[in-house]
Design a protein that fits this description.
17 helices; globular
């Protein structure tokens, strides 16, 4: 167990900065609101941020990885086959501020837990809205998929996936204040049912991967209880024919959508072979797809390649893909190091670290079947998770939370 100076309450301006950051994640249900709060956080960071130690050794690798990613983004735009189209991708730099501001505005276990709860509350509220949509529609259908208040059902399922795995990590750990009690058990069921109700297979596979990580690092009884509720959610939806068909189609290579994605791999690999280092250019895959399309592909054009890694390599080159994986790897490495140093499963913050492991595992596995890295709302949550262990360490090593209401 680590010991350090006791946690001290933040100043008023730092508290304002924290709640601005908290709000920009909680309001992902309305991206315009979230963008506004993120902009306020950026503009106010000289006064609201905790700049002391921001560039210290602890943060340098994470900041360096994000800088490399941005430099490669700029090079990919400059060498794009159509720079005027690709330049719009520079807006991702604004999105990456979620990572940097976490290091400035979120410090210590108490604040980290509040932000994690904001993500879970967001997922809970959205799941209730989605289930209301299901009741209004009279059932689930592929042409009328529930999406909460979000713009797309893939964004909806991506947020629910991350929220559920963070929630399951809390329920599967002895370390979380409040343990098995409180509102979290009640939140798990609507999130579960809504996640399966999205009919999004990539999220289902990601959930399976995240639960597997929980089995490896979480408390067995808590994981089994969480998995039991997940199974209940599946059984509750099995009478619906669209759900059964989607489950059966996951490994069916004769399924039209599955074959279409294999054709996208063919086209994406052709794009990568032609321009391996810096890619075709951001936002160029849709325009270039017909050139590389397999002759038997069901569709003549696609908006993206339904694979986050293939999409990134085709658009921006293998170097950008490596930079993205390095960024994720730095966050996971720090979480793993602190998890082991603080006593592993028995540590006082094990639920937070295991939450990072399971949520990122779910996200990374789902990325093989969906371009979730390019989803602004989902990416912001992932960027916070990458910064989470660094934020805890910024607040001191000793536990700051005594109880949870």
């Amino acid at each position: 167990m680590l010991h350090s100076e006791p946690y001290s309450a933040p100043s008023r301006r730092h508290a304002v900065g924290f709640w601005v950051y908290w709000g920009h994640l909680f309001t992902l249900f309305g991206i315009a609101i979230s963008n506004g709060l993120l902009a306020i956080g950026i503009l106010g960071s000289p006064w609201l941020g905790r700049w002391r130690g921001f560039l210290n050794r602890r943060n340098r690798l994470l900041l360096g990885a994000s800088l490399v990613y941005i430099v490669l983004l700029g090079l990919s735009i400059a060498t794009s086959l159509d720079p005027s189209t690709s330049v719009h991708a520079m807006t991702e730099v604004f999105n990456l501020a979620t990572l940097w501001l976490a290091l400035l505005l979120v410090a210590g276990e108490r604040e980290v837990r509040r932000v994690v709860d904001a993500i879970i509350l967001l997922g809970t509220a959205q799941s209730i809205i989605g289930l209301t949509q299901y009741l209004a529609a009279g059932g689930f259908a592929l042409d009328q998929r529930i999406r909460g208040s979000l713009s797309h059902y893939m964004t909806f399922s991506g947020i629910l996936l991350l929220a559920e795995l963070l929630l399951c990590a809390q329920l599967a750990s002895r370390s979380h204040p409040g343990g098995r009690f409180g509102w979290r058990w009640f939140a798990l069921l609507p999130i579960n049912v809504a996640l399966f109700g999205t009919l999004t297979r990539s999220a289902w596979v990601g959930l399976a991967a995240g639960l597997l990580i929980l089995l490896l690092f979480g408390r067995r009884r808590g994981v089994l209880a969480a998995a039991g509720l997940a199974i209940f959610g599946i059984l509750a939806l099995l009478p619906h024919q669209p759900v059964v068909e989607r489950v059966n189609s996951i490994a069916d290579l004769t399924n039209t959508t599955n074959y279409d994605r294999l054709c996208m791999v063919y086209a994406g690999w052709g794009m990568i072979r032609e321009r391996p280092f810096l890619g075709q250019g951001p936002d160029m895959v849709e325009a270039r797809y017909p050139i590389y399309r397999h002759p038997t592909a069901p569709r003549h054009s696609v908006p993206h390649l339904h694979n986050a890694y293939l999409q990134l390599a085709a658009e921006r080159g293998v170097l950008s893909l490596v930079a993205m994986l390095l960024l994720v790897g730095v966050g996971l490495r720090r979480a793993w190091r602190d998890f082991r140093r603080e006593g592993g499963r028995a540590g006082s913050r094990a639920d937070l670290y295991v939450g990072v492991f399971s949520a990122l595992a779910g996200f990374l596995v789902a990325g093989f079947f969906e371009d979730n890295w390019a989803d602004t709302e989902v990416q912001r949550i992932v960027l916070f998770l990458l910064a989470l262990p660094f934020c805890i360490e910024a607040g001191g090593g000793a536990s700051e939370v005594e109880s949870e209401p």
